Amino acid sequence: MKIAIGNDHAGVEMKQAVSDHLKERGIEVINLGTDTLESVDYPVYGRRVAHAVVDGDADLGILICGTGIGISLAANKVPGIRAAVCSEPFSARLSRQHNDSNILAFGSRVIGPGTALDIVDAWLDASFEGGRHQRRVDLIENSEND
User: What is the pLDDT of residues 35-86, one digit of tens each?
Assistant: First the structure.
């Protein structure tokens, strides 16, 4: 499995912790974020990861900014992306099971590294349940053409 990870300046340290954790799980990490604390524009990195996922260069994506909100909004503008901002493991798990999220986002100023790793694990260990949820995901995807 390959996961593209992107971040702005607020997420540099957390990206490293998450990347190390993913590698320990045997997952290949594609670093598409900044590695500097110098201020950058989060939409650039949200879109980079989103395009890596929809283009098939990565199976999934993880995004980190101060809150996770702005970077996920940018990613969700790319057709085919379902980025979910999660600040605890329960929502992360359900975002995969019910919404088939293909990008996980969170904020380095909202949660600590331990919680981030718990969220990542819950998200990765869950899988899409399909069924009634597929109809809803289809409705979301169809709205991209409105």
Answer: 999 999 999 999 999 999 999 999 999 999 999 999 999 999 999 999 999 9
Are 105 and 62 within 8 A, CB to CB? yes
What are the residues whose beta carbons fall under 8 Å from the beta carbon of 7, sequence distance 6 or more? 14, 15, 33, 34, 45, 63, 64, 65, 71, 108
Give me the number of domains the chain comprises. 1
Q: What is the pTM of this model?
A: 0.96
Q: Residue 130 sits in a domain of what CATH number?
A: 3.40.1400.10
Taking each continuous run of H as one helix and of E as one strand, the counts in the chain are: 6, 5
Domain around 134: 2-145
Burial class for 142, CB neighbours closer than 10 Å (0-12, 13-18, 19+): exposed
**Which positions are annotated as active-site residues?**
65, 98
Distance (Å, whole) CA 130 – CA 132: 6
pLDDT of 110 > 80? The answer is yes
Please check whether residue 39 is in contact with residue 12, taking contact to mean a CB–CB distance below 8 angstroms: no
* Cα 16 to Cα 35: distance, rounded to the nearest angstrom: 9
The rounded Cα 76 to chain-centroid distance in angstroms is: 10
